[in-house]
Amino acid sequence: MRALLVDSDLNIAMSLIQIMRGSGFTVDHTASGREALEMLRHYDYDITVLELMLNDIEGYDVIRQARQARITTPILILSSLTRPQAKIKAFGVGVDDYMTKPFDTGELIARLQAVLRRSRGLSAARVAIGPLEIDLNAKEALVNGAPVHLTGKEYAILELLVLRRGAVLTKDAFLNHLYGGIDEPEMKIIDVFICKLRRKLQVKGAGNLITTVWGRGYVLREERTVEAEMMPAAPMLASMSA
Predict the structure, then answer these.
(1) In a domain, 233, yes or no
(2) Residue 200 near residue 206 (C-beta atoms within 8 A)
(3) Backbone angles phi, psi at 140, to 5 degrees
(4) For residue 50, what are the domain limits?
(5) How many CB atoms are closer than 10 A to CB 116?
(6) Which residues fall under the DNA-binding region feature (predicted)?
């Protein structure tokens, strides 16, 4: 998952980046609330972690302006402000969750995962698509109950496809998700990852869940949907006047 971290305290920010990357997040950081708004407008983030006390504008203004611009990226506040009034105001302007500093690392990751699940309309950490099941907390995939051994990049691609199932994802979207604009390889690497991922799923009996949409990208659909699309159209009923 790709996250935007907004915090003016560089020491805390560096620590948070390590924690989040260790849990599978690709993290972009900015110390500026105004820059955060520009990044939210131009990049597709899965979640934002925001400190309310910034050097240029208040975090409340970041939230308010993002929501006014119809940016729906989930926002988790991680702030030094602990008073109830701060939390009430934050929820009032559109934040999704609120934590205070100092924080417990395990709780932070659990809350991030919970916010991500809710934003995708999911109530549990395990998501099933036909014979495929992924565990968002354990970062593992299973087919018919048997584990599928995936690399970190392969799992990240599969997780993105599952969370956005039914939506066509471009190769640019995968590159941004995997690398966040840092040392990105050539775009054809996505085809390689998808090919290996398909092979591993098919060997375990998952069929053709990942469909290529030529000229656009890839989409994950349930097997019955794919099969239905491949079936020939039924003949039209003869006219009543025939």
Answers:
(1) no
(2) no
(3) -135, 155
(4) 2-120
(5) 21
(6) 124-222
